[in-house]
Design a protein that fits this description.
Two copies of one chain form a homodimer.
Chain A (H helix, E strand, L loop, with lengths): L4 E6 L3 H12 L1 H7 L5 E7 L15 E3 L2 H6 L5 E4 L6 H11 L3 E4 L2 H18 L3 E2 L10 H8 L5 E7 L2 H13 L3 H10 L8 H4 L2 H15 L9 E2 L7 H9 L2 E12 L2 E12 L11 E8 L3 E8 L3 H17 L1 H9 L9 E3 L5 E11 L4 H11 L4 E5 L7 H4 L15 E8 L2 E2 H12 L4 E11 L1
Chain lengths: 449, 449
Amino acid sequence: MAESLGIALVGCGTVGTGVARILTEHAGRMTARAGGRSLVLRHLVVRDLAKPRDVVVPGAAVGTDWRAAVADPAVQIVVELIGGTTIAKDVVLAALAAGKHVVTANKALLAAHGFELFEAARKAERVICFEAAVAGGIPIIRALGESLAANQITGIQGILNGTSNFILSAMAESGTSYSDALKEAQRLGYAEADPTLDVDGSDAAHKLAVLAQIAFGVTAQPGDIEKQGIAGIDAMDTRFAAELGYTIKLLAEAWVADKTVALHVAPVLLRRTDPLAQVRGAFNAVLVTGDVVGETLFQGAGAGMMPTASSVVADILDIAVGRAQKTFAAAKLWSGKTEFALAPSDKVRSRFYLRALVRDEPGVLADVCRCLANERISIASIIQHEAVESPALSADLPAGRTGENQPILMVPLVIMTHVAETGRFRAAAKALAKLPGVCGPAVFFSVDD
Amino acid sequence: MAESLGIALVGCGTVGTGVARILTEHAGRMTARAGGRSLVLRHLVVRDLAKPRDVVVPGAAVGTDWRAAVADPAVQIVVELIGGTTIAKDVVLAALAAGKHVVTANKALLAAHGFELFEAARKAERVICFEAAVAGGIPIIRALGESLAANQITGIQGILNGTSNFILSAMAESGTSYSDALKEAQRLGYAEADPTLDVDGSDAAHKLAVLAQIAFGVTAQPGDIEKQGIAGIDAMDTRFAAELGYTIKLLAEAWVADKTVALHVAPVLLRRTDPLAQVRGAFNAVLVTGDVVGETLFQGAGAGMMPTASSVVADILDIAVGRAQKTFAAAKLWSGKTEFALAPSDKVRSRFYLRALVRDEPGVLADVCRCLANERISIASIIQHEAVESPALSADLPAGRTGENQPILMVPLVIMTHVAETGRFRAAAKALAKLPGVCGPAVFFSVDD
C-alpha cells in the first residue's frame, strides 16, 4: 500500500471549502487518481474558529495556528489559500523551509514575490504549484508549461477577470451603463463591495505576470504592465462598437516582437465573430498563439468555489503522482533565465477606436484630424451622428454650457484609425484632449481585427 | 551534462515532416524544455526512399527498414506516424519489446488494439503517449487525464473531425449543397479523395473511443459507438436549422448516467450561441463537463502538419522530462479497470429535429403525428412552408410522380420535438418512413439546447 499524503489547508474561505469538499466527498476517486496514495486532510487553518463552516472534515484538526499546521510532520503538502502578500508569503516560505510542497492560488503573491519563493523552493527541493492562480478551473498553467512545450508562445490574449467580463457582457447585451452593470454584478456576488482591483485591471495584470513568467521567463513587476480599466467605458462606446461590428472586452495581452515581449491590460474592440468576443458573463478564456500550433483557445469558469478547487486538487494530485516534481525541475520558473526583455507597450502596433465628445462647431473635426495626422496616424472611418437623429446617444451627453450660460451642442465623434504604434496614438489622444473643441476626456481602445 | 535522447521517426508524411522540422530547427529550445537533454533524431523511416522530402535532418539515417531503426540501441523513443492498424501495430509492439518508449498519433490503432498495446507497455515498463491522436494541436488528452483529474467527467461533446466541420461550415455559411461543399473541401486539401472515414463519423468515433478510455476507463470497440454521418444533411436542413436559430455540427458525444456512459457520433443542432456552434472551418473543439469544474472548452487546429507535430513533440518532451512515465503509471489506461458500463445511446434523452418530404395531401400530417404519439413523443413545433412560398426550398425537391405519371406535390415538413429517449425517436422515425405519404428517407438529428 502506497504511503498516504498529509495536507494542511491554510485558509478555508470559498476555495478552501471547495478543496475540503472534494478531498472529503471523493476520497476514493482521489486515491485512484493519486496512483493509490490516499490524500488525508490533516489541518484546516481558519481565521475565526467561531465562524460556521460549510464543510466537515472528519479527523482534521481545525485551528488558527498556521505554524503548527505547517510544522506537523504528518503534513507533506501545504495549500495556501489565504490570499494577500504578507502572511501568505510567510506561510509559503515556512512550508518550504519545513520541507513541504506548496499549492497556492495566489497570483498577487507570485507576481510580487515569485523569484524569492521559487528560489526557496529550489533550495528546499520542494515544488510550488499554482494552476488555480490564473483563470480558475481552466488549466492554462499546464497548457503553457507542458502541453504546448514544443512551441515558443508568441501571443497571449486573455479574458482573465470574470467581474469585468460580467460587467462588459451586461453592458453589451442590455445596453446598461457601467455603474448599473457594476451594481448588478455586486448584487449577484460577481463583484466585491470594493471592485477596484477587478475593474481597474490589477487582478488581470497579476495573472498576466504569472502567464508571462511561464511563457517567456520574464519577471514583470506590477509597474511593468500597462493597465487601463473598464470604468471609462460608456454605454455609448458599447453601442458604437456594436454598430461597427465589435464587442468590447477587457483583455490581458502579451505580444512578442523579436526578443521582446510587451504586456498590457486594456479594453479592446474584438470582431463579433472572434472567439473571445463570445465569452460571456463571468467566464474566462485564454487564446494562446504558439509558433508551431497556431491559435489555441481555452475557456471555462474563471472563478468560483468548485472550478478553482478543481485546479487546486489537480496540483495536489500532480504532486502525489510525482509529475509536479518533474515539471518544477524542468521549467526553472522565476529563475531569472530568459531570452526576452520586457518592451513598453508603446511599440505595439494596433488599430484604434477613439471616441470624444466634441462641440458641434466648424473646425473641430479639422483640429481632431490634425492631431492624428501630426502623429502620422491614418483615419479609416469616422462616425458622427447628428444629435437629433440619435436620441439614445444624446441622452448620454453631459449638459454643456458656455461661459455665457448658453447651452452648447456636443456630439460624440468616433474615429477608427488604421494601424499605428500605441505610443503615437497615446500622444495624439493627449494632444486631442487639449483642443478647445473637445469636451471632457477622449476614450480610446485598441481594435483587434 | 544530461544524457541525450535518441528518436526514431517511423513514417515521414505530413506530421512526420513537421516533427522533424521542430526537432531540427528548434534544437536549442527542445534541449531547454527537456530539462537539458538534447533530442537527437537518429532515424527517419520512409516508405519510398526516392520520394523527395521537405526536411533535411543532418546526422539522421534515412531508410525503409523500421525494424533496424527500432532496434538501434541509440534510440530511446519510437514515434509511430505511419497510420493504419497492421504495420503500425507491429512497430509499436516491437518498439516496446526492445525497451523503447512510444509516441503515436494513431487513434485507429489505439481504438482497435489499445488493450494489447498498453499491456505490452506495462510489461516492458515503457510508456505510450498519444496526445496527437485526438484533436491535433489541442491538448485534450492531458486535459482529461491530468488537468481535470479532480473531476469525474460527466460529458464530452467534441467537434473532432475537421473535414466534416469544414463541410458543415461551408453549407451553413454559403448555403451550398453537401456535394459542392465536399468538392470544395477536396480542392483545398481538407478532404481526401475518398472522404468516407471522415464524413461517415468513423474517424470521430475512433477519437471518441480514445477519449472515453481516458475519461471513463471504458474500452469501446467501433461497434459500440452509434454513428451517423453528415452525407444525409441537405441544404434545406442547414436552412431550416438556421431559421430555428441553430447550427448543425457533427458531434462526438459521451454522456454519463449513473454508472453507464453512452457514446455516439451524429449531427446535432446546436443553438447559434453555443460555443461549439461557433467553431468554423477545419477547427476542432471539445467541450468537457466535469462534476467539479463545470464546462471547459478546448479549441484549436485539429489537424495539419505543425499543430499535430506540436502535440507529438509535447509527448517526446514529457518522456524526456520523466513526466510521461509518472502519468502512465498512475493512469492505468486500457487496463480493463472501470466503474462504467457502456450504455446503448437509445436511452439518451434529447429533443429532436425531424425533416421529411411529404405529399401535400390531407391526412399526411395526422399520420406523421400519430407515429410520434405512438412513441409518446411530444411535438414542440412544426414548420411546413407552402412550396410556392419558398422557391429556394422547392428547388431541392426530387421530382415525384404518381403511378399515372402525374406530377405530385411534395413539401418538406420539419418537426421539433420535446425531450424523448433516442430509442423511442428512432422507432418513430422508422414507422414514419413507411407511411405512404412520406417520400424518401426522413432525416433526424438531436437538438442541444
